Amino acid sequence: MIRPIVKDVFFLGQKSGPATMQDLSVGQDLMDTLRANQDRCVGMAANMIGVKKRVIIVNMGILNVVMYNPVIVRKDSPYETEEGCLSLTGVRKTTRYQNIEVEYYDSSWKKRRQKYSGWTAQIIQHECDHLEGIII
Description:
Blueprint lengths: L8 H4 L11 H13 L6 E3 L9 E5 L4 E22 L2 E18 L5 E7 H14 L5
Antiparallel strand pairs: 1-2, 2-3, 3-4, 4-5
């Protein structure tokens, strides 16, 4: 289901709770909502659609990947950048890392561990910040 985008900074500033297998539908809602906003968005966290659960979606070119309970377990090569967000107006400066390693559960609830770099790593970091209530 396509959900409206939350712009309430108070709501977005709250930490998200752990996702469970009962939250698999949140991943589908993120998939539908990202597709509906693909002209101006490359990733989303569940709190952006009003759900305070640790679920994100990331556009990886030809594929949108949903991650449940993602945790960045390794990062290196920091750099400064500016980012925008569908939930906020304007752009803000932030520090990101060129290379990251993430543990998460996929939509089959299988634990995964993947390395990402560049643009994809930046998107994942932005969405993981959302889960912590960090608004850049």
